[in-house]
Amino acid sequence: xxxxxxxxxxxxxxxxxxxxxxxxxxxxxxxxxxxxxxxxxxxxxxxxxxxxxxxxxxxxxxxxxxxxxxxxxxxxxxxxxxxxxxxxxxxxxxxxxxxxxxxxxxxxxxxxxxxxxxxxxxxxxxxxxxxxxxxxxxxxxxxxxxxxxxxxxxxxxxxxxxxxxxxxxxxxxxxxxxxxxxxxxxxxxxxxxxxxxxxxxxxxxxxxxxxxxxxxxxxxxxxxxxxxxxxxxxxxxxxxxxxxxxxxxxxxxxxxxxxxxxxxxxxxxxxxxxxxxxxxxxxxxxxxxxxxxxxxxxxxxxxxxxxxxxxxxxxxxxxxxxxxxxxxxxxxxxxxxxxxxxxxxxxxxxxxxxxxxxxxxxxxxxxxxxxxxxxxxxxxxxxxxxxxxxxxxxxxxxxxx
Amino acid sequence: xxxxxxxxxxxxxxxxxxxxxxxxxxxxxxxxxxxxxxxxxxxxxxxxxxxxxxxxxxxxxxxxxxxxxxxxxxxxxxxxxxxxxxxxxxxxxxxxxxxxxxxxxxxxxxxxxxxxxxxxxxxxxxxxxxxxxxxxxxxxxxxxxxxxxxxxxxxxxxxxxxxxxxxxxxxxxxxxxxxxxxxxxxxxxxxxxxxxxxxxxxxxxxxxxxxxxxxxxxxxxxxxxxxxxxxxxxxxxxxxxxxxxxxxxxxxxxxxxxxxxxxxxxxxxxxxxxxxxxxxxxxxxxxxxxxxxxxxxxxxxxxxxxxxxxxxxxxxxxxxxxxxxxxxxxxxxxxxxxxxxxxxxxxxxxxxxxxxxxxxxxxxxxxxxxxxxxxxxxxxxxxxxxxxxxxxxxxxxxxxx
Lengths: 401, 401
Known about the structure:
Oligomer: homodimer
Structural class of chain A: alpha/beta
CATH class of the largest domain in chain A: Alpha Beta
Distance between the termini of chain A: 51 Å
């Protein structure tokens, strides 16, 4: 029997206990051993909860119990999760987590501590919720030189954009609805400004390139400036607007960004709607593969953590390979990123726009007083210089082919 | 250094060598050891091929060489692949394969021989080509009670159906085109009659239910009866027609079938077009996840085989868990399978059809002389009894919700 402790008894933490208890026979079979939750750490008490007797308030009880071999950290945030995780790994206890902030900030250090202590630090649930993506990258796409990864990695913003598209409602209206339904936080900044997706693409990029991608260096733009008028054009042109988190290797240069993009129906992410997530991975011999599912939610996220617990139990005393060096990957300047752009300008500025951008593909969506068009591909630097020559750009959205 | 042999130097076999050589640094890094192709078995010679010096014609050279630890079998068909695989595994050499016929027919026996000899039998490439699906099922969805798996598992038929939908061309015309382009075999029976998809869903079902699903017991219906008129209705109703291979657990009963189905845009498989494959997996706590990519092709399939080679090298002397007992899973009769149906009848038979089926949802696609409609959900038995009361059913396609 392997004893497990769960840190944090909120949504994900209680989900972890629920998944283990609901599917105990399957969990034990796959782990090749009986998995038993011995402790739940939380500041609160949970009178009436079926596992209230497992709740402890002092992490020392868990860290000092040699019987505990695997810890599921579901506290979120950097501290005290960082300190607890370091201490657990240092004493040879494996740690599984859904904590993207901590993984993005201290992943390579924690992985090294795990290696040094013959245990594991696993974080399948930190990206894409219940979608298996970390393990496929680490254990399935092993022969591939992955040169591109593009994800819809935030369910809240995908829900908002889907609603805006379907209902023609404004961002503010849909955000309020999403908050009422519990799909968006009362402080929605981390989602709508792209910070959440930024941490997730930093984690994925670090894994596929093998070096550390510092999330603070990733260009990040949220969805707050997307309007219903943008969707009017997108629908007319048959495109979707999605918040994409992506990184690419182009001729030996690495680019990473989070930004709203127009994508068309030939992109497998086109149909990833509502709160769902999708992750498109391009390998040099494999081509595209895509992974789709619930990007958040209590049980899907918990299921991913439990899959890590099982993997840790199967590999007690042995560290599973995970290539993420502490050395920073040099990201290229956004100035050099090349894309097409969708642009809207007032009628009065269109002649100048044509002069500056040359051949453009105009989309006639019947919006009075303005014109919308696709430019040809150019660098961000070139685009910014050209835009500056036009009086006022009403909107510009990058195009992901 | 780990020595590898490749059996069969056709499309997949030569792809395996190409993937290893192209990405040698990545392959070695992920395997934690240098991987070197020592032999290629083929009846033919390959003068001028960069690896012609590795070609041998006698399998005994490979089987009797203690240095060879992993064998990639890319011969296809049951014999002599079956005999060679058994002998290799019996002497402790791991075998990786893309051979769905062999895996579907002798999977549990070969897995047992591998276990008995502390080596591995792996077959990631046997289903979904380059899409990681076997390893996610075995190593990622571990806590899940998977109760449904639905796949577009055959690229040839998906290509044909996509072309029929987009171009309004007849099956025969599109098949001929596909044959000319090399997307369909000269003898297309295995693809268009669903036999290929049948073996693949047998493999997936065996893995998720843990018992052997005999492919010979799976109800299998191909796409040869699908017409352009069916697509006229489907497009009008906003549905797609796909050849689905699926298995489900419903109230403790297991159903498995391969059949053309109508699916609507809310199904993640709706947008899986052309030669691509998609596999939708439903778990009891995770909900839906979907896996998408190239279901066939030289390099994608080879990449999946190489991912298995790497996994075998990482686990030399140790058998990786794979739950597929030799005991047969009892499949329920198709009679008891419950679905809605899309039905077309001549105008003259429509009154009788309404009388027999009760409330139906008519689709007005403007086709002269007939009516098309969706029935409510009913068992196959009930549907067949009711259909028999109508003069002549022009077409019936199952509906997958």
